[in-house]
Amino acid sequence: MAMAIGDSVLDSSLYIPELRPKRKESILEELVSRAHALGAVRAPILLRETLLLREKLGSTAVGKGVAIPNARSVAVIAPRLAVARSRRGIDWDAPDELPVHLVLLVLSPGEVSEEVHGEFVSRVAALMRLQRNRQRLTEAAGFDSVAALLREVGA
Amino acid sequence: MNGVAGILKLHDLDLMMSEIRNAASLARLRKLGFEVRDPKLLERARARLVAELDRRWLHHYERALKRYGRGLAAVRGRVCQGCHIQLPTSASPGAEESLTLCESCGRILYWR
Questions:
Q1: Residue A67 exposed, middle or buried by CB count within 10 Å (0-12, 13-18, 19+)
Q2: How many CB atoms lie within 10 A of CB A111?
Q3: Residue A3: pLDDT above 80?
Q4: Is the pLDDT of residue A17 over 60?
Q5: Shortest CA distance to A136 belongs to which of A92, A83, A81?
Q6: Where exactly are the structural domains of chain B?
Q7: From B83, which residue of chain A is nearest by alpha-carbon distance?
Q8: Quick one: B5 exposed, middle or buried, by C-beta within 10 A (0-12, 13-18, 19+)?
Q9: pTM for the full model?
Q10: CATH 1.10.287.1490: does it fit domain B3-111?
């Protein structure tokens, strides 16, 4: 079963138009905390540790100012996509060494298969590969515009 | 680290290791632009974690992992998400930090 980027994975509380934290550890903590408050995560400490371990294995920045941290974890209750922006840019150890301006956190429950989670991550990555999509996300006026873009291109 | 936290962490780590060990998954990750430096990092993290865990629960976990590819299963609506069998009414999460086993498949159950 493929994971479409639709309303079921999006929520206005998981959209941060301008990130205040400057370090990726703090940003992940902020996003996980929001997903927990939403009821999509049951063990925020575990999820944060899993995300940080993934970052140790290799940066989840994929270049061109985009990072896609992701986890398939027992700490996650329901699939979610969190979107955060930073005009200033964040050091995320990107392969092209550019600062990250768009962070898309992809969360899947531990029960889902590698393929389903991989497809979810792939859809988000494919979406961000196009310059016009990155620009639309960067310039979106609010959550509704972000959700409309993700629905339009990610279904 | 308590028993529940340790087993949950081990489960997440094993999910990640399984993805990295799968050649197709690894190739997909790299094609998407993700960096995967040294898979041995996960093996070292696992060895450190395993050394801290209760032997009895680790045994149950490893046995189920070997048999099904998963050592732990979440419970939803009193159904084990590993074998999809309805748990008997006598089954309960017990104390806050205690672990229980699925009587049907033997996976460690995660109730919350």
A1: buried
A2: 15
A3: no
A4: yes
A5: A83
A6: 3-111
A7: A111
A8: middle
A9: 0.92
A10: yes
DSSP B3-16: HHHHHHHHHHHHHH
- Cβ within 8 Å, pair A57-B37: yes
Beta bridge partners of A41: A76
By Cβ distance, the residue of B5, B28, B42 closest to A57 is B42
Which is more confident, A4 or A136? A136
ipTM (interface predicted TM): 0.89
**Which residue of A53, A62, A74 is in closest CB contact with B8?**
A74
Are B38 and A57 an interchain contact pair (Cβ–Cβ within 8 Å)? yes
Residues of chain B below pLDDT 70: 1-2, 94-97, 112
CB contact under 8 A, A53 and B37: no
Tens of pLDDT, residue by residue over A26-41, are: 999 999 999 999 999 9
Query: What type of residue sits at position A60?
Result: T
The SS3 assignment for B72 reads: strand
**A85-135 confidence digits (pLDDT tens):** 999 999 999 999 999 999 999 999 998 999 999 999 999 999 999 999 999
In the three-class reduction of DSSP (H, G, I as helix; E, B as strand; rest coil), residue B53 is classed as: coil
A contact set with B (CB within 8 A):
42-43, 45-46, 49-50, 53-54, 56-60, 62-63, 68, 71-75, 93, 95, 109-111, 114, 118, 121-122, 125
* pLDDT (0 to 100) of residue B104: 94
The C-alpha R_g of chain A, in whole angstroms, comes to 14
